[in-house]
Design brief:
By secondary structure, this protein is an all-alpha fold. It has five helices and no strands. The protein has helices at 2-24, 31-50, 57-73, 78-106, 119-142. It is globular.
Length: 155
């Protein structure tokens, strides 16, 4: 059950990263195809996290997969897409750090309990994932999309 909850949290978090990167790339969010890609990337990331490779390689892989998705499926240029994906991960880091500090300040989280197996850690993960999606939705209301999705034939 923990694996499923961790996967679900990963899907929502990656979905938030993708949609925030799409907003930064000035592309209208299409939730259906984005959710499918988020589920696939989350599965790949879970597999990468289980094999003994360099720490943090899953983040690099996630950034690259989201970048490739945006470049292949939208008309956003490559430099804007890369900066947008990187900016969405910076936002994720800021949100995660802020929530960690808030939970520690409120006494809900003790530094020695910060593990992936902790239920509070999982709850924080869900909160930051939902917050990323909410931020993307709000920003989409204010940022006019200039780029579009490519057709099935790539144009």
């Amino acid at each position: 059950m923990d694996i499923f909850l961790s996967y679900l949290q990963g899907v929502i978090e990656i979905l938030g990263s993708i949609v925030l990167a799409l907003v930064f790339s000035r592309v209208k969010i299409k939730w259906g195809r984005t959710a499918i890609v988020a589920a696939i990337i989350a599965a790949v990331i879970m597999i990468l996290r289980t094999i003994p490779v360099i720490f943090g390689i899953h983040m690099v892989a996630c950034i690259l997969m989201i970048f490739i998705f945006i470049v292949m499926k939208t008309t956003a240029n490559k430099s804007l897409a890369f900066i947008s994906v990187f900016a969405s991960f910076v936002c994720l880091g800021v949100i995660e750090y802020s929530l960690n500090q808030l939970f520690i300040y409120l006494g809900l989280l003790h530094i020695e309990d910060v593990t992936e197996a902790s239920s509070i850690w999982m709850m924080m993960g869900y909160m930051q994932a939902v917050l990323m999606n909410i931020i993307a939705i709000i920003l989409q209301l204010f940022v006019e999309p200039l780029n579009d999705w490519k057709n099935n034939n790539g144009t």
